[in-house]
Amino acid sequence: MSTYCTAVSEALAALEESVIEDFRKTLRERHNTLAEPLMWEECRRQARAIIDDIVQSLRQAWDHPDDKAIDLSTDVGTHRAEQGVNPAVSIQACTALFDVALPYIRKAIAAAPAEQAEDFLAVALHTFNRSVGHRVEAALRAYHSFLLQQAGEANCEMRRGMARDIHDHVGNSLATAMRCLEIAEAEAEAEAVASAEAEAVTSGEADPTADGSAADPSKDPSKDPSKTVDRRESPASRRLHAAYDAVQDALGYTRTLVRGLRLRIPDTGIESSLRDFMDSAAPESTRFEILVTGDEEWVGTELRYELFIALRECLRNALAHAEAGAVTVELDIAPHEISAEVRDDGTGFDVWAVAAADSAGGGLASVRERVRLMNGTVSWLSSPAEGTRVVFRVPNLRKELGKDLRKDGHKDVRKDGRKAQAAV
Ligand SMILES: Nc1ncnc2c1ncn2[C@@H]1O[C@H](COP(=O)(O)OP(=O)(O)OP(=O)(O)O)[C@@H](O)[C@H]1O
Ligand SMILES: [Mg+2]
């Protein structure tokens, strides 16, 4: 086969322009939006790169899509998401490219003897399949990641809006109500003092032994109306005070709610937030380790937040249900994927039974839903003898950081996990 490699690959390279021209024509005939001027340039680059991959493979110089292919596909996926182009349109374009390219590939292969044609065709089709497959995968990841980020931002914006509304409307009204109650209480108190004074004056006048001293509070403190009037004694005052306490509670709760809605993962990141959580929530009898490989800077803010919430729920469960002696979190962050595991050596549980039970809490379901939104997977592996492992895999997409990483080589920034003090 090798004698004809160069001839066949050069023949295909020479046909490349025609393939691209026909490809655009076919896209137009099939009313595919990627043929439109704004979309075409990127689509053309992808198609050309796929044909180039086939040319290289026929020359036996192609193994798998390189970084350039992944970067280009990532850009394409992001742009298509920005432009609101459905991924189905890209898949249809791949089909069109295959339909168009196949006759040209056959034509190029005709440069080789008939008995070798099948081998060349197999190589070309295999390459087409792999090149397109990898590019589509990278583009879809980027597409999904863009939507996820947008959903995260919308979610964040919505929470900020709710926090604002609760603060500005509910909080403000409650504060006003509290102020009114304070005033009403003060007025009721003043009124009670005044009427007690009036009563004292009346009873002083009526006192036959009065020499004035009985009505003088400085002489008999027990007769000082401001001291003897207990505003709680009057039912109206009591009710006012109860209302004041209730409004104060509601105001406190509103503040907590607003803070919660505004809560983002602290700038310090997943690792230290988990550490803070364990420091405050883990009993002294539980050792814990948090091991991080990679750099959190490679994870977008929204993803970081979602991950933190999901991992924290697993830790919460380990602390609440497992009676574990040791709990470990391992987090491995790579530019294209994040994997994590939360392990405990506790009692374990029957995962299937819990999943099937109506009475189950919301924690596992919420972790599952969050991970699904991140386009990842999560599984619980648990047995009474071995405790519980929760294993996460979530796609990450930080291509610009990925590029830096490829330049620098993979930095291992594993940090030593700290053991809780007084661990037993
Ligand atoms: N690490 C674990 N070790 C032992 N049992 C666990 C563990 N994680 C979960 N479970 C079991 O799974 C059940 C469901 O957990 P889930 O988080 O859904 O609810 P919950 O923790 O009971 O309540 P919530 O999270 O709503 O406060 C728990 O009640 C517990 O029985
Ligand atoms: Mg729980």
TrEMBL record:
What superkingdom does the record give?
Bacteria
Which residue intervals are annotated with compositional bias (Low complexity) in the record? 192-206
Q: Tell me where in or outside the cell this protein is found.
A: Cell membrane
Extract the Pfam families matched here.
HATPase_c (PF02518)
Q: Where is the Histidine kinase domain?
A: 306-398
Q: What is this protein called?
A: Sensor histidine kinase
Specify where the region named Disordered lies, as residue ranges. Answer: 192-239, 405-424
- Topology in membrane: Multi-pass membrane protein
- SUPFAM superfamilies noted in UniProt: ATPase domain of HSP90 chaperone/DNA topoisomerase II/histidine kinase (SSF55874)
Q: Which residues cross the membrane?
A: none
InterPro entries named among the record's database cross-references: HATPase_C_sf (IPR036890), HATPase_dom (IPR003594), His_kinase_dom (IPR005467), Sensor_HK_TwoCompSys (IPR050482)
Q: Native species of this protein?
A: Streptomyces monticola
